[in-house]
Design a protein that fits this description.
Blueprint: E1 12-16, H1 21-32, E2 36-41, E3 62-65, H2 71-79, E4 83-86, H3 93-98, H4 100-121, E5 126-132, H5 155-174, E6 177-183, E7 185-187, H6 200-209, E8 213-217, E9 222-223, E10 225-227, H7 228-240, E11 248-251, E12 257-258, H8 259-270, E13 274-278, H9 282-285, H10 297-303, H11 311-325
Parallel strand pairs: 1-2, 1-4, 2-3, 4-5, 5-6, 6-11, 7-10, 8-13
Antiparallel strand pairs: 9-12
Helix pairs in contact: 1-7, 2-4, 4-5, 6-8, 6-11, 8-11
Bound molecules: nicotinamide-adenine-dinucleotide.
Length: 330
Amino acid sequence: MNDDFSVWRDRPVVVTGGAGFIGSNLARRLAELGAQVTVIDRMLAGYGANMFNLALPANPISLLESDIGAENAISDAVTGAHTIFNFAGQTSHMDSMQQPLEDMALNQIANLRFIELVRRVNPGARLVFSSTRQFYGPPQYLPVDEKHPLNPPDINGIHKLAAEQYHMLYARVYGMRVTALRLTNVYGPRMRIRDAKQTFLGIWVRHVIENSAFEVWGGTQRRDFSYVEDLVEAALRTAMADATIGHVYNIGGHPSLTLDELAELLVQVGGSGSFIRKEFPAERKKIDIGDYYCDDSAFRAAANWQPRFDMAEGLRRTLAYYRANKHFYL
Ligand SMILES: NC(=O)c1ccc[n+]([C@@H]2O[C@H](COP(=O)([O-])OP(=O)(O)OC[C@H]3O[C@@H](n4cnc5c(N)ncnc54)[C@H](O)[C@@H]3O)[C@@H](O)[C@H]2O)c1
């Protein structure tokens, strides 16, 4: 098990989706560790892409503004990479239902083009793919482990599942060094807070820093959450642990809590804002998965990972970030 983060020094690394929430946190951490980071991002309007996410005093991160499916534009960057974190994606479940073909282009076809390019130009690269817990659908048992049946509740889930399966197929058939991580609700600095498109926690955080009231839909649903700094460490440890190659893992983080409990904790930690309970909107209820929390013990053992932050600390850090930088996100 390799715990030595100095391996990243001078390493050429590609982070797709690196102008977005999770990818930018990962790109920044890699740059801090001395890696040569290239971000590939098409800067999709209306989602998490934000130039401020990559602002650093002396910026060592190169940004290649391109779709991950545009092979001519990205081939050189992919060819030279030691490690590739493929974290690009369209994340809105509602948008995927309203514009299913756009979601297919962004989340499925672009990923097939991407993995096919990696196979042709750099088949030995270490590749980590950001998958999702969404396609388990409404849990049949809790906690959800990786053997749980798959039942995507929306178009986004179908396309993310296809993208994950392309990656794992290429691992099996071509021996590529791929790991897929099924993420749950991730939150923290650099997420979208203008609205609830990326995560409902984004708009909740906005209301708390603006000292206004946010809505909690339902409230009794139980969920688990990952703080983004913990998730970044999980992604790095994945790439550093050869034992994870060829596997798909759940990643959770904090112990689960109900949305009511989370709303109370957020208001308490923030010392501002308030919330009101509302009925779940009908069009969202149809694609909601109800209670979810995962069993991520397989990942913890294979990658020697555990979260370092509890939920209160993660929320405190998130609120401090947006209190200082909110004008870049509204
Ligand atoms: N945030 C979460 O809670 C969560 C949960 C489960 C899975 N995920 C997955 O993690 C990944 C990152 O999510 P995020 O929350 O950081 O989202 P985000 O919207 O903040 O970032 C995604 C980035 O990908 C870019 N992008 C989208 N499609 C692209 C394409 N075809 N080519 C190039 N760039 C493209 C966007 O411009 C954006 O900057 C996504 O794949 C998402 O499905 C996120």
